[in-house]
């Protein structure tokens, strides 16, 4: 990812806390610059040269590191921005770091990005054009109390939403945030044209090779019972749809040709039982089995919350009306 040298120089002066960057950033001497990069998990040791120039050179090195996606900055750069805007380093007269945030955004917007504080007071980078958040995603990390509460609201929403709402309000924003593109929802108006998939999408590897994915989504629990409960989906139905998905071509308008789906996601808004996974694995041959991946409610919640996506409108907690009685 190539950024203007001017932008990296200005960020370097903010990291150094030079006068040119304004009074909103702490001054960092040689040893503190080394500590700053240690906090970013980078083994850079200041060599005694001009501070801002040395930092600008290190930022250029960081921007040349491998990226999680061609559209996103490298993970170490995200950590640098988060450390630079650490809410615990507020300066006098800028207690909420609003001035520091504005100064950093002046630089980032030149490159098509902006930064904001999330509910946990952590700085997050967002691509202005695509609204993609460049985050260090670890869906298995411990969640904060705020994230747990958001997960509860989303889980309640998954209990009552329709299958189309699951796709449109939850899955499409999630997969866009995870770096998939050309995401196309088949919808449920014309079943004859779905060929077993609710969504198809593309993912570009760092080598610039492209993989195609199909999604078969079900609202509730996915089980292998002979007679399923109301709201549950039977894995035998999924077997037919997955077979159709992997066997039918899709038309990619960007390439102007038809292509096969490389992998199939089976997504359930509820639980996917172990028996259902095993049954489907036994029915598919070895080649197709390796093409199938599962996502259940737990996976959706963890990914949706740790990527800091805004909750769907229907999942937001209800605000009390002004004329509601407040219990004492």
Describe the structure.
The chain is an alpha/beta fold and 328 residues long. It has a 5-stranded mixed beta sheet, with helices on both faces. Strands 1-2-3 form a 3-stranded antiparallel beta sheet. Strand 9 and strand 10 form a beta hairpin. It has 2 domains: 5-134, no CATH class; 145-315, 3-Layer(aba) Sandwich (Trna Endonuclease, Chain: A, domain 1), CATH 3.40.1350. It has 11 helices and 12 strands. It comes from Sagittula marina. This is Restriction endonuclease.
Please state the average pLDDT score. Answer: 84
Sheet-strand content, in percent, reads 15-25%
Question: Mind telling me which CATH architecture of the largest domain this is?
Answer: 3-Layer(aba) Sandwich
What count of domains describes the coordinates?
2
Succession of helices and strands: HHHHHEEEHHEEEEEHEEEHHEH
Distance between termini? 56 Å
Instruction: Output the strand order for the largest sheet.
Output: 4-5-6-11-12
Coarse morphology: elongated
Protein name: Restriction endonuclease
Organism: Sagittula marina
Quick structural summary:
The protein is α/β, with parallel strands linked by helices and 328 residues long. It has helices at residues 5-16, 30-39, 51-63, 75-84, 98-108, 145-160, 163-177, 235-247, 274-283, 286-289, 297-306, and strands spanning 113-117, 123-127, 133-134, 181-185, 199-204, 210-218, 222-223, 233-234, 249-252, 257-260, 263-268, 292-295.
């Amino acid at each position: 990812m190539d950024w203007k040298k001017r932008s990296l120089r200005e960020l370097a002066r903010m990291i150094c806390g030079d006068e040119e960057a304004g009074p909103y950033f702490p001054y960092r001497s040689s040893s503190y610059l080394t500590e700053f990069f240690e906090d970013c998990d980078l083994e850079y040791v200041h060599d005694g040269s001009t501070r801002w120039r040395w930092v600008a050179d290190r930022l250029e090195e960081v921007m040349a590191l491998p990226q999680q996606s061609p559209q996103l900055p490298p993970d170490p750069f995200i950590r640098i921005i988060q450390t630079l805007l650490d809410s615990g380093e507020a300066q006098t007269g800028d207690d909420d770091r609003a001035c520091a945030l504005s100064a950093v955004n002046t630089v980032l917007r030149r490159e098509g990005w902006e930064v904001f504080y999330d509910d946990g007071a952590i700085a997050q980078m967002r691509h202005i054009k695509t609204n993609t958040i460049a985050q260090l995603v670890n869906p298995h990390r411990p969640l904060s109390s705020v994230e747990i509460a958001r997960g509860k609201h989303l889980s309640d929403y998954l209990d009552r939403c329709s299958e189309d709402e699951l796709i449109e309000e939850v899955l499409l924003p999630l997969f866009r945030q995870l770096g998939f593109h050309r995401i196309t929802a088949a919808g449920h108006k014309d079943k004859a044209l779905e060929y077993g998939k609710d969504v198809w999408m593309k993912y570009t590897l760092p080598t610039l090779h492209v993989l195609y994915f199909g999604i078969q989504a079900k609202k509730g629990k996915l089980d292998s019972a002979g007679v399923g409960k109301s709201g549950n989906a039977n894995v035998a139905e999924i077997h037919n749809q997955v077979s159709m998905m992997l066997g039918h071509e899709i038309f990619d308008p960007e390439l102007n040709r038809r292509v096969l789906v490389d992998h199939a996601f089976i997504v359930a808004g509820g639980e996917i039982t172990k028996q259902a996974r095993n049954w489907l694995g036994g029915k598919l041959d070895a080649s197709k089995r390796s093409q199938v991946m599962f996502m259940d409610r737990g996976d959706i919640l963890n990914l949706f919350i740790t990527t800091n996506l805004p909750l769907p409108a229907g999942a937001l907690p209800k605000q009390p009306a002004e004329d509601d009685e407040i219990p004492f």
